[in-house]
Amino acid sequence: MYMFKYVMKRLGLMLLTFCVIMVMCFTLIKLLPIVVNVGADSDPLVVYKQLEARGYIQNVVQGANGTWSYDRVPIFIQLGYYLKRIFLMGDFGIATTYGEYLNQPVWDVFVEKLPPTILINLYSTLIGVPIGLGLGILAALKKNKWQDQVINVFIILLISVPAIVMGLIIQYFLCFKWGWFPLTMNSGYDYFTWDMFRSMLPPVLALCLGSIAGYARYTRAELSEVLTNEFMLLARTKGLTRGQATWRHAMRNSMVVIFPSILSEFISVLSGSLIIESMFSVPGVGRLYLNSIIFQDYDFFMLLSGFYTLVGLVAGIVVDISYGFIDPRIRMGAK
Fold first, then answer.
1. Is the pLDDT confidence value at 291 over 90?
2. What is the DSSP secondary-structure string of 105-173?
3. Contact, 57 vs 51, CB < 8 A?
4. pLDDT: is 196 or 70 the higher one?
């Protein structure tokens, strides 16, 4: 019952935080100038009337010199229209300035671009977590030996190099110089073929190498401390082998700190993929997010900001709930 109340409380706080962030984003972008993207064969009146129909502006008038004037609808009235369209009609808006997707529903474009982003982040996590944990465990068990020194040098090098520089190195050596992978991700929707997976590996490596170093550093630091605690000596005197004591006691205590670091690294990878997707031409939402800012397409910006904000907030809740399952002492303390 306590865990249920705690989860409900955290969900309520998450929803409140999400609403506050999104209202702030909506208010701030509505203070910016309204950008109208009109093609050579397009009628500006149609574009302005479209914005008027969506509740952004009103009283549109064309001046004698060809310029257009209008009155802004108050921001919180615009917010009411926006929420009404989302909850009653499932309408998250249409692209008004993003030329490639002009007049297309932003939700449809978002759903189309979501799989590549999910896959490269998922592959990055699946590759990075076991390798990083394995290196960290090995470094802790071989502390101050040559294996530990080699792993520490490897960790320092990877942490020191930003993901964008790592991406350039991967592009030059693995893609251009040695020709192991294509320079950019393949187009198409056959995401689970070998050719598509091979084209995804360069951005995946650019994202996961830094994460491997982070996982290894956290694991080594925490496991090294736990291995020196007195309860480990007690476990050995009760007849457990070093491997049994490490696995049953040291690793479980270490995971209280390591597991949240895994989720925080996943969030940093997700945000880092904004740049990596552009570098490797990944047709995902990260690239879409950056372009929505460049083109000042506000409906795209609101939807994608909500997506990234929600991912970060949900990850925080998962971290908090995971403590109770990883360490029973936390559940016992709650009672």
1. no
2. BHHHHHHHHHHHHHHHHHHHHHHHHHHHHHHHHHHHHTTTSHHHHHHHHHHHHHHHS-HHHHHHHHIII
3. yes
4. 196
Q: How many CB atoms lie within 10 A of CB 108?
A: 12
Give the count of alpha carbons within 13 A of 226, CB side only: 24
* pLDDT on residue 189: 83
Q: Which domains does the chain have, with CATH numbers?
A: 35-91 (no CATH), 107-334 (1.10.3720.10)
Higher per-residue pLDDT: 39 or 226:
226
Q: Do 177 and 100 contact (CB within 8 A), yes or no?
A: no
Gap between the terminal Cα atoms of the chain? 10
Instruction: Please tell me whether the overall predicted TM-score, pTM, comes out greater than 0.90 for this model.
Output: no
Host H or E run for residue 182 = none
What whole-number distance in Å separates Cα of residue 101 and Cα of residue 108? 10
